[in-house]
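Researcher: Let's do a round of design. I'm pasting the structure tokens now; please hold your answer until I've finished.
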């Protein structure tokens, strides 16, 4: 019988390379979904991860063998205090991507913004708004800068988080009219999202620092008589050519990566966080005092981390597009 070379499956996924450390806690959204609705709207929201629980829902899909039966599912609870848009940005399409043309700030800027960015001492809002309107014909899309209000959440900080959201609208003029309407006001999650819609959850995962290939890639630990090392790779490459392939498991940064969870359904939204907070509060978070949202499944990030929500950019074709019947959400303490 001929000798057969030992084969082993590859350890670790090469789907996300390089596994580098995220540059900041607030992830950047590079792509936005096509908006086909008749009314203008912000294409997402931002909240803080409070924790996880489980819920009981009724299966409604007509092709499921469990149709009409109850099922226990994992859910994630987000603390979603109102956000405040404070800037309108006009962009135009160029061969090198969208470039900003003009910008106008709100008249009533929050004092907490001074903790994040310098604010102008003298600002002519009316002149900037007139200048913005003169460029409307050359613009291709409208975006807004929004900031969070951590004082209204269970996060122990005062410095707001700033991020940019695109406005989905049939035309640039309608997007601009909507932006002027909400500029400088508090926007709640119910003004943007509805129960039953699919969203993408973008956040920075939990960091684990510098780790070896066993934990980072899941390679096997070598036998105890191995030379030099056990928790390493036996051979990282040949003598010739004298280079190491990118697919070889190497030690390095583990965690704290920007990741996107696609198609998380919004199961429920509410205004009274006490009805969803377990006794004693969420572990390492506390009590939700205002608006909240419950998403189906797990999402990236650790507790207290900002989570950016975006309308699903590639929605599941099997989604029914209706509100899921949730009969019970567990509020038992996780202590």
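Researcher: That's everything. Go ahead.
Model: Designed sequence:
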């Amino acid at each position: 019988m001929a000798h057969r070379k030992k084969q082993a499956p590859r350890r670790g996924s090469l789907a996300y390379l390089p596994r580098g450390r995220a540059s900041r806690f607030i992830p950047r959204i590079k792509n936005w979904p096509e908006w086909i609705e008749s009314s203008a709207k912000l294409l997402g929201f931002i909240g803080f991860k409070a924790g996880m629980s489980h819920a009981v829902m009724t299966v409604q899909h007509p092709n499921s063998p469990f149709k009409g039966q109850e099922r226990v599912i994992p859910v994630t609870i987000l603390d979603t205090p109102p956000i405040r848009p404070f800037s309108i940005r006009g962009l135009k399409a160029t061969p090198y991507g969208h470039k900003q043309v003009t910008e106008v700030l709100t008249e009533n800027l929050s004092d907490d913004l001074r903790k994040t960015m310098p604010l102008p001492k003298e600002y002519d809002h009316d002149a900037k708004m007139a200048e913005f309107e003169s460029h409307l014909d050359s613009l291709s899309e409208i975006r807004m800068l929004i900031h969070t209000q951590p004082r209204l959440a269970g996060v122990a900080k005062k410095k707001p988080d700033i991020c940019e959201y695109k406005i989905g609208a049939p035309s640039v003029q309608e997007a601009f009219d909507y932006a002027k309407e909400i500029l400088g006001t508090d926007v709640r999650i119910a003004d943007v999202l509805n129960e039953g819609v699919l969203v993408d959850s973008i956040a920075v995962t939990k960091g684990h620092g510098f780790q070896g290939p066993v934990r980072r890639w899941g390679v096997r630990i070598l036998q105890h008589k191995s030379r030099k090392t056990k928790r390493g790779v036996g051979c990282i490459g040949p003598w010739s050519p004298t280079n190491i392939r990118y697919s070889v498991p190497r030690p390095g940064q583990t965690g704290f990566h920007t990741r996107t969870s696609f198609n998380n359904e919004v199961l429920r939204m509410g205004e009274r966080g006490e009805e969803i907070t377990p006794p004693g509060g969420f572990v390492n978070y506390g009590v939700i005092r205002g608006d909240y949202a419950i998403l189906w499944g797990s999402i990236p990030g650790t507790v207290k981390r900002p989570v950016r929500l975006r309308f699903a950019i590639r929605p599941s074709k099997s989604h029914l597009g209706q509100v899921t019947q949730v009969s019970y959400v567990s509020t038992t303490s996780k202590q």
